[in-house]
Amino acid sequence: MNGLSQLFPSLPLAPGGLFWVGLALVGAGLAGEVCRMYLRLPRIVGYAATGLAAGMLGRGIVDEDMIAQTRILIDMALALALFELGHRLSLTWLRANRWLLFTSAFESLLTWGLVAAVLQWIGVSPAVAILAGGIAVSTSPTIVLQLKNELRAEGQVTERLLAMAALNSIYAAAIVQVATGWLHSEYGNLGAALLHPLYLLVGSCLLAWGVGKLGHAIYARMETDDHYSFLVLVGLVLFTLALTRLLKLSMPLTLLLAGVVFKHQDSQPRVWPAHFGSAGSLLIIVMVVSLGLPLTAHDWAIGGGAACVLVLLRHIAKLVGVVSLGSFSGLSMKQCVALGLALAPMSGLAYLLMSDIALLYPATGEPLAAIILCTLAIEQLLGPTLAGWALRYAGEVRSNGGGR
């Protein structure tokens, strides 16, 4: 010891990144409770608002290193949600109710086509418009699961919402992978244009099949009512996430399909372990807060107008798509409207797809990132609000969400 200075804090105090992360989470928790108790909004709206405020007001504190470090937390939260959503997707139900599959496909194609066409019409480059349209297809799996758990929603609209969120995630990932192949050709990489999408799609499916089969073989030999057995699932998901990064495969496709394969190894339905959702809830909060950090005023200047157009067209396309065909799958008009509005949430999956493109081609990724970040700023506030209202409108909320 060289002196007393080593025993006491030095002035002025210089708190590190952990201090600000902890403070942001405290603020997010308080904001979530204010939304729940006084505004009768889902907690997740408060989490998103906290992240946006931290990103805009704390620009001197939030640097690129901090934003990069949050990427693994976003990946982990998204991986858990995608696997759980894949596990909830019943292929037997889809085979018995094919109009649900047709409705999902039509709504997704309408969203992609309308967003891509109109964005090009207002001056966005074709590559950015097509990729943004593909990303707009996605419905956030993390927010949908969080809303279901918070509102204790059950019913036809809720079950279809979970199924369509899973399908939309698959469609969005596939569309973006194929569009990325076309982007390779635009940059003159013809070999990559042919091989890269094929590698992503085939490789992700094979890895998902292997993980689902192996994971179930291990998990089936454990006591499922033992609350420690869920650690196997968490470890399986995180191991798969690491493999997708190591092999440079599509994380959304792999985790969703692995969940589907895992589920359909059982001859009898298996209740999803409640602890899995609890384990992921903190990561979801961190993810939602983190997604507001990268947004700057410069992004609004570049992509704010296009983002507002994207949000409006996306909501119209999803509502029209579901209302047009939803009745054929057994829904009333009221339920169709509720389902179309409930597909609004957009969050971590969109960010993941966008950032992967930005790493490959920064020239295309910069304007695309500006549009998607601004879109997420709107949809992380508007999407859960619309979805929560829609589930209440459908009469499927079993509690008031904890409000007064």
TrEMBL record:
Subcellular localization: Membrane
A Gene Ontology BP annotation from the UniProt entry: proton transmembrane transport
Domain Cation/H+ exchanger transmembrane intervals: 38-387
Segment forming the signal sequence: none
Membrane topology note: Multi-pass membrane protein
Any one GO molecular function term: antiporter activity
Protein's name according to its UniProt entry: Kef-type K+ transport systems, membrane components
